[in-house]
Design a protein that fits this description.
heterodimer, A: mainly alpha, 70% helix, elongated, B: mainly alpha, 2% strand, flat
Chain lengths: 312, 334
């Protein structure tokens, strides 16, 4: 994963191939603030920029779904116009098995899928960040207990348990989010714990201790700011994963209630009509794919911009 | 070393016990046996329900039931499947070969393709080939398995004209054509059976291996790059060794350490199968069995599967840890 920043470095350095040049001169110059440096590195990362643009477009699409679809109701079924082919006037992406407009459903489905992705990853990052930094900073019995719990979560076959929980509690978006967070915090916790252990080795922590800073001050002023980069990157990268998990559960028939369109349950519905309307399979999946890909690009670019040495 | 292994074994055994407790609680508090009985026979008499509950031990609280379950497991009895009405252990054993057929083929394809491509990508860093592979790896990473699988079904199983379609349900057909006649699968000679099985395997194997490739490819590439930057590689080059010797003898051998450990780590996944792919292609493997068991509330079977998969994961994590020490003499465990 660390190679993309190398690619970037090479592009910014002279044309000589294979020669690794340190960060471009802007990082070493003192007249630039950290924010400017991050922004500069991010703007030069072409994949990240394209990922960012797609993400913004997807978000705008789902926010303004009502206006973009010109007020069409995503659940309105017109039984006389089933399986209309895509690119027909009035139905940009055609209609599904009960005559609902696919393009409208994609727009509204994006709302649910993206919301689930954002909320799940933000909550996982918060829980993981809190528990990870606590167990990394304090160590001792709390740390060993947390690490045992994390290990248990890593050894449980996640998908069967997710299927079990979703089959019982699924249906509502919030339950799905809750289930996904319950199984998503462990990875972040372990990662942040490792990072905090590393940060603790630094001299400035020792210095802070030596001048008598309280634990709370050390955590808030010295440890936490150093974990933000990783948390942010981890969060961005896990949005794609959350969208994927949600759509997988929907695909298995366990996600959000079919009356609310999501990309996942549109796909699972389309599967039944593969012979009549193969085009129904393509659109929802394409949007899931686009969303995951662009969040991954964005996360990768963010990582390189915030901290090129970071390894996730 | 042995001390380390024994200590770890105890720790992981403890983890397994906790997992079994959690899974048992999840499974048992989430189903109402009366509801299941009534769904099978709506007119069931209350007395029959009581007898069933007492016979099955459902009148006790789940925690107590867990200890009964654990006692039986220690005796080698994992309980009876509610759907199949037989012991769950042989049921699981019967599914293992089905999953292994597919996943071993996938594993071999992934290894044979990803490692050479990864090495090539690393030795030709920043070439057009490397960029393309990196981009493809990103794409493959973001493709949802079920969507890609559906597209494969669509393009190779649905859209082609009849006679050119690849099968996409199950492990073999009910009937096969032999000598121009349609005969039942069981009566066909072995080579016809084999051909039929291979045909059924093409789509799932292609789907999983193409998506699974990307991870190992990226991993090989970065492991290789890491090694190539080391001083001893520079020394080897400075000695005037041939580039081939440097790459394949000095670099690859060191890069193989992380690669080998990640391969060991992926072995439990071979048994776990891909739940999604098996579900999508109707492949009667372990993944599909877990899913069906959970969905039909066949909890003894689900419990057996979950424990089997966790057991493999736990054991192989330990083996991965130990293998580091065997593969890399610089690492030692107290």
């Amino acid at each position: 994963m660390e190679d993309l920043d190398n690619i970037e470095k090479i592009q910014t350095s002279d044309k000589e191939p294979g020669l690794l040049v340190e960060e471009s001169e802007i990082t070493s110059a003192n007249e630039y603030t950290y924010t400017q440096m991050v922004l500069h590195r991010f703007l030069k990362h072409k994949l990240a920029i394209s990922g960012f643009i797609i993400v913004v477009i997807l978000i705008l699409m789902s926010i303004f779904a009502y206006w973009i679809s010109r007020g069409v109701d995503p659940t309105r079924a017109v039984i006389t116009s089933r399986f209309i082919a895509p690119f027909t006037p009035g139905h940009l992406l055609g209609t599904d098995d009960v005559g609902r407009d696919v393009w409208t459903r994609i727009l509204y489905g994006g709302r649910v899928s993206l919301t689930i992705g954002f909320i799940t990853s933000i909550s996982s990052a918060m829980v993981g960040g809190f528990l990870g930094s606590a167990s990394g900073f304090f160590g001792g019995w709390f740390d060993s207990l947390m690490m045992r719990i994390v290990e248990i979560f890593f050894s449980i076959p996640t998908l069967p348990i997710l299927v079990l929980l979703a089959s019982k509690f699924g249906g509502s978006m919030w339950n799905i989010v809750f289930i996904m967070v319950a199984f998503g915090w462990a990875g972040t916790t372990r990662m942040i714990r490792g990072l905090v252990l590393q940060i603790k080795q630094n001299e400035y922590i020792e210095a802070a201790k030596a001048i008598g800073c309280s634990n709370a001050r050390i955590i808030i002023r010295h440890v936490f700011p150093n974990t933000i980069a990783m948390l942010l990157v981890q969060m961005t990268l896990s949005i794609g994963g959350a969208i994927l998990t949600e759509s997988t559960l929907s695909f298995l028939g366990l996600g959000v209630d079919p009356s609310t369109p999501t990309w996942g349950n549109m796909l699972s519905n389309a599967m039944n009509f593969m012979w009549n309307a193969p085009h129904l399979i393509i659109w929802p999946g394409l949007f899931i794919f686009l969303a995951i890909l662009s969040f991954n690009f964005l996360g990768d670019g963010l990582r390189d911009a915030l901290d090129p040495k970071l390894k996730i | 070393m042995w001390q380390y292994i024994v200590k770890q074994l105890f720790q992981r055994f403890f983890i397994l016990i906790i997992i079994s407790f959690i899974a048992f609680m999840f499974l048992n508090t989430m189903s109402d046996p009366v509801e299941i009985l009534k769904s099978i026979n709506p007119n069931i008499h209350q007395r029959e329900i009581d007898i069933y509950l007492r016979n099955q031990g459902f009148n006790r609280p789940p925690v107590i039931r867990y200890f009964y379950w654990a006692k039986n497991v220690l005796r080698g009895d994992f309980g009876k499947s509610r759907a199949y009405k037989t012991d769950v252990f042989p049921l699981l054993m019967r599914r293992i070969p089905n999953t292994l057929y597919m996943s071993l083929v996938i594993w071999c394809i992934i290894i044979l393709v990803a490692i050479p491509l990864g090495i090539f990508s690393a030795t030709h860093q920043y070439s057009i080939f490397d960029y393309t592979l990196t981009f493809l790896a990103f794409t493959g990473n973001a493709l949802p398995t079920f969507w890609f699988g559906l597209l494969m079904i669509l393009w190779f199983g649905v859209l082609p004209p009849k006679g050119y379609r690849l099968p996409f349900t199950g492990m073999y057909s009910d009937t096969v054509t032999y000598n121009g006649q349609i005969i039942p699968y069981d009566l066909a000679p072995w080579f016809v059976k084999l051909g039929d099985r291979i045909k059924h395997m093409i789509l799932p194997v292609f789907t999983v291996s193409l998506l699974g490739l990307t991870g190992l490819l990226r991993y090989t590439r970065s492991a290789m790059l890491e090694v190539i930057r080391q001083d001893y590689i520079r020394t080897a080059r400075a000695k005037g060794l041939k580039e081939k010797t440097v790459i394949y003898y000095h670099a690859l051998r060191n890069a193989m350490i992380p690669i080998a450990t990640i391969l060991i780590q992926s072995i439990p996944g071979l048994f776990a199968g891909a739940l999604i792919v098996e579900q999508l292609y109707g492949w009667p493997g372990i993944g599909k069995m877990v899913f069906d068991a959970v969905m039909t509330k066949d909890y003894p079977l689900a419990m057996m599967d979950i424990m089997f998969l966790s057991f493999l994961t736990v054991i192989f994590t330990l083996i991965t840890d130990i293998s580091y020490a065997f593969l890399d003499p610089r690492i030692s465990y107290r």
